[in-house]
Specification:
Elements: H1 22-25, H2 28-68, H3 71-77
């Protein structure tokens, strides 16, 4: 006895049979307002990150400048190979 081959003839759901999404249920002006709010929040987050990065960079430069004037730090950092500067 040979096995029967079953054909896959399942009906694909049409566009009308798909369940409604939240985007479909909301009015377009509300969706546009939510998108604008999301864009504003992203821009605000980016500005906050940029400000934090600039503040960290300023703090690093200030520390570097302070250490430049510290003789003990410069002495520890420098190489004591006097033959190089003959």
């Amino acid at each position: 006895m040979a096995k029967k081959k079953w054909s896959n003839t399942t009906a694909e759901p049409s566009a009308q049979d798909k369940p409604a999404t939240l985007k479909d249920l909301l009015s377009p002006d509300i969706v546009a307002g939510l998108k604008a709010q999301a864009d504003a929040m992203k821009a605000e987050e980016q500005a906050r990150k940029d400000a934090a990065r600039a503040e960290a960079e300023a703090a690093r430069k200030a520390e570097e400048k302070r250490l430049e004037n510290d003789f003990g730090h410069l002495l520890e950092k420098s190489k004591l190979d006097w033959r190089k500067h003959k």
